[in-house]
Amino acid sequence: MKGWMYILECSDESYYVGSTNDLELRIIQHQSGEGANHTKKRLPVKLIYFEEYHRVDKAFYREKQVQGWSRKKKEALMKGEIGNLIRFSKNYTEYGDPDIIKVVSNFILKTPPKS
Q: What is the average pLDDT score of the chain?
């Protein structure tokens, strides 16, 4: 059975990530307040991104993966910005804020390779 992972933008501009085996029906359910608690309180919602899978369990797995991402990383996914997906994947506690890394990295001196 096919499945979809989808991202909705809510009226408060928050994102909701879900998965389903019937995308059209699920969007109707969200719009009518029959969806998740998050979307019920933030109507109307707008479908802004989706991925289609051959199996619904793969869509569910992808949902759980994307739910854990930062807003910036979700936006990079939706824009198809692969480089930023990698950039926003770095652990903030280990590497700091990705925006700061970008600025600081312009000033890092590279040591010459050992011969």
A: 81
DSSP 3-state of 65: helix
SS3 19: strand
19-42: pLDDT as tens digits: 999 999 999 999 999 888 889 899
Which is higher by pLDDT, 105 or 65? 65
- Integer Cα distance of 20 and 55 in angstroms: 10
Q: 1-68 maps to which CATH number?
A: 3.40.1440.10
List the domain boundaries for the chain. Answer: 1-68, 70-100
What CA–CA distance (Å, rounded) separates 54 from 73? 24
Measured between alpha carbons, how far is residue 76 from residues 49, 73, 114 in Å?
Answer: 12, 5, 37
Closest of 13, 6, 12 to residue 28, by C-alpha: 6
From first CA to last CA, the distance across the chain in angstroms is: 57
